[in-house]
Design goal:
Elements lengths: L1 H20 L7 H12 L6 E4 L2 E5 L10 E4 L7 E6 L2 E4 L7 H9 L1 H12 L12 H6 L3 H7 L2
Antiparallel strand pairs: 1-2, 2-3, 3-4, 4-5
Helix pairs in contact: 3-4
Amino acid sequence: IQGSVARSAERKAAAVVAEQVAPVVNEVTKIKEAFARATAKGVARPKMRLGEFVFSKASMTGRNPDAIYVKTPGADGTYLGKVFGTKLILEPAGKPREAEIIAAIADPAAAAIAYGRRTGNCSICGRELTVGESIDRGIGPSCADKYGF
């Protein structure tokens, strides 16, 4: 048990240091507003595919309420870090991509368009886009309404 307590204390201390040195993301308003709109429209687990990343809203009842998690796409979705307040707290795997992550956070609409055009899939739900307007927008009409794009 002593080892477990010591490891827990080490993790907490490392988390404090990580938050202290984390870069400040100056523009988080747009992504937070998009998640707030989706939640208000009844989306239980809001998520967006922006650029090369998947952003998801943390549960309000979890350990990091109001945080936005950042992962790589795919079934295994490697955790890269989180936006907590205005801080971007990255894991070592996310640090090399810090600038890209910050760009996607600052302008989620542009990142959504880029994702949709690159993949041909909706940047929100992941479904294939088949209508020209949706392909150009990178997001389907229903998802665009829910997220305000």
